[in-house]
Design goal:
Blueprint lengths: L4 H11 L10 H19 L23 H21 L5 H23 L5 H173 L3 H11 L1
Helix pairs in contact: 1-2, 1-3, 2-3, 3-4, 3-5, 4-5, 5-6
Length: 309
């Protein structure tokens, strides 16, 4: 592969992991390669060229620097981007890390140049002085940029936090008011529902109580009428039984009276007959005595009387 600008640019993008040109534009990387080629000219003591860069037709840089040149160009590209983005506040905390990485690559690059050109002398001293001045300026600018960025970020964070706090406070207040209204409405709805349910239950209980009372009254009246009918029937039955018993007793009493009367009558007749017989017998005996007394056979009459007696 030829050692020229196009090859160096392609290798530089691979080194920076930006093959798709998402981070560095070609112009930015061209400027970085130009600075690295300028370093080679300073250390070499004479101007060198890279084919395809700034109209150069050939490459006069040592082939030993074909790969190290990418390191120098990457360092210049990284530090330039770090400063640019730090000033525009696009990288925030990443700017410092990118700058440190770029400066480390430049230090490695210049160490390679010093190893390749040990006799550079005053040129290298001048480069070192310029590097120190450059590093000092870059550090000061980075510090100032970081300070400004930190201040702006702090102010922005404070304003953002204040806005968020105010928004959260307003939201919380609205939510609290909304929750309070919802809770009050829910409580009122629950109270109305409970009152309606209680009234419905009361009406239902009253209707059921009235129905139970009417049913109990009807049942009591029916039981009373049934008991009255049964009592009347029992009374009639008792009266009829009493009347029947009375008639039976009367019949039995009449029968007993008739039987007793007949017995008394029979006894009276028997007694009358016996009295009549006794009276007749006594009369006959008396007649016989009289006749015997008056008879010439008085002794026989006395004997007869004694015998009869």
């Amino acid at each position: 592969m030829a050692f020229d600008y196009a090859t160096t640019l392609s290798r530089l993008r691979v080194f920076l992991m930006d093959s798709g040109s998402a981070v560095w534009a070609d112009a930015d990387l061209q400027a970085a390669i130009r600075l690295a080629v300028g370093d080679v000219s300073l250390y070499n003591g004479t101007a060198v060229t890279l084919s395809g860069l700034d109209g150069a037709g050939s490459t006069t840089i040592s082939a030993l620097l074909e790969l190290p040149l990418q390191t120098g160009a990457a360092g210049y590209a990284a530090t330039a981007r770090a400063v640019d983005r730090a000033e525009s506040f696009e990288l925030a905390g990443e700017g410092d890390a990118l700058r440190i990485w770029g400066e480390a690559r430049l230090k490695d690059w210049r160490g390679m140049l010093r190893a390749l050109y040990p006799d550079a002398g005053a040129a290298t001293d001048d480069i070192a002085a310029r590097e120190l001045a450059h590093d000092t300026r870059v550090a000061a600018e980075a510090l100032a940029a970081d300070t400004r960025l930190a201040t702006r970020e702090s102010d922005a964070d404070t304003r953002l936090a204040t806005r968020e706090l105010n928004a959260d406070t307003r939201l919380a207040t609205r939510e609290s008011d909304a929750d309070a209204r919802k809770a009050a409405e829910a409580l009122a709805a629950d109270t109305r529902q409970a009152a309606e349910a209680l009234a419905a239950d009361t009406r239902q209980a009253t209707r059921e109580s009235d129905a139970d009372t009417r049913l109990a009254t009807r049942e009591l009246n029916a039981d009373t009428r049934q008991a009255t009918r049964e009592s009347d029937a029992d009374a009639r039955k008792a009266a009829e039984a009493l009347a029947a018993d009375t008639r039976q007793a009367e019949r039995e009493l009449d029968a007993d009276d008739r039987t007793e009367a007949r017995a008394v009558t029979a006894d009276r007749r028997k007694t009358d007959r016996e009295d009549a017989l006794s009276a007749a017998e006594a009369a006959r005996v008396n007649d016989l005595r009289t006749e015997a007394t008056n008879s010439p056979w008085g002794s026989w009459a006395d004997d007869f009387g004694e015998v009869e007696e």
